[in-house]
Amino acid sequence: LSGYGRRVIDPLIKRLTSGNAAARCAAAEALGRMRDDRGVASLVAALQDLDAGVRAAAAEGLGRTAKPHTAKALVPLLNDSREKVVAAAAEALRLIDGPSVAPLVEGLKDSDVTLRTNCARVLGRIGDSRAVPGLIKRLDDDNATVRRVSALALGLIGDRRAFDPLLNTYNDPN
Using CA atoms, how far apart are residues 94 and 123, in angstroms rounded to an integer? Predict the structure, then answer.
């Protein structure tokens, strides 16, 4: 469908909100490939779909569009119950890159352990030094997994500011 150009955008948007899950997935995939601004708001709305496949396809589509303003909507999916949705959101945030850093750093402060862990993991993959202060704070997290993933993320980023805080965690058994 994406080969038909702009005239199929409106029908795809309509399909994204109706029909069966397979049709909604196909619509999300096509809208993502087309990278048209008119489809972005519908893809953001589809992140709330009841079907995990649709949520994953919408996240993948938003990653393809690489629209900075969509990063904040993708972060909550890092806490989705379905791994394919988490993976799709993580990859989309990585593709969006720099604009994803601020909402991901905010996610490091969330009360949910899974969300904090996944935010730290994605920040490490992005490799942006703006994440360093937030990740350093997570080295003292109550959860060992969050501490470990934050330390790994800091290692991937390779910023000198993390050296002493990482050295201080050397005696942490986790």
Answer: 8
Running along the chain, 174 residues long, what does each successive block of 10 average in pLDDT?
67 90 94 88 96 97 92 94 94 89 94 94 95 98 96 96 93 74
Structure tokens at 155: 């290692």
Q: Is 35 left (phi over 0), alpha (psi -120 to 50) or beta?
A: left
Residue-level pLDDT at 8: 86
Q: What is the CA radius of gyration of the chain?
A: 18
State how far the Cα of 36 lies from the Cα of 49, in Å rounded to an integer. Answer: 21
For 143, phi then psi, to 5°, come to -100, 130
85 contacts 77 by C-beta, under 8 angstroms: yes
pLDDT of residue 132: 98
Catalogue the long-range contacts made by 83-87 (C-beta closer than 8 Å, 24 or more residues apart). Answer: 84/52, 84/53, 84/56, 85/52, 85/55, 85/56, 85/59, 86/118, 87/56
The whole-number pLDDT of residue 90 equals 93
Please identify which residue in the block is written with the tokens 């009841």. Answer: 50
